[in-house]
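Possible regression after last week's pipeline update?

I re-ran a chain I had predicted before the update to compare outputs. Posting the input and the new output here so someone can diff against the archived version. Not blocking, just want to make sure nothing changed silently.
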Amino acid sequence: MRASEILLDGFERVRGDVQAVLDGVTDSELNFRADARANTATWLVWHLTRVQDDHVAAAAGTEQVWTRDGWAKRFGLELDDSDTGYGHDARQVALVRSTAGELAGYFEAVHAETVRYVEGLGDDDLDRIVDRRWNPPVTLGVRLVSVISDDLQHVGQAAFLKGIAKRAEAAQKKR
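New output (post-update):
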């Protein structure tokens, strides 16, 4: 098995989990906040997709899907087009609102771009340094594994929030 095939498997796992979160989710579940400073499932899926888009585009030397394909305009967020959500405070999290369909569309476009890029990588490509700001410097392989790890953590958080929101809605209906 080639290293790129392992990476593709990881990105496919992220895709399956994102699809599960977005399948049948309501807008209120997507935008549910466990408290006033908590992230929403909308923000989590948007953020994990923005980070993947940003990191893969930088590694590939291409423009991000977010701007190239007009997703920034479609979402119409009051954020800079380069914003990935890193370091957002509660006010900024609240600015990120979307529908499941829009989130799924953007995610699928980024996923397709990621797959195209990773399919073309050889094992030697993964040793290329992509970020010298760290010690040791970050290789492409480490960066892609980091994206998968970050994505899986955030999609797990989104799934948890979806479940909590469903339970909160069911409890409200019983009252």
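Follow-up from reviewer: compared with the archived run. The two ends are 55 Å apart (CA to CA). Marking as no regression found.
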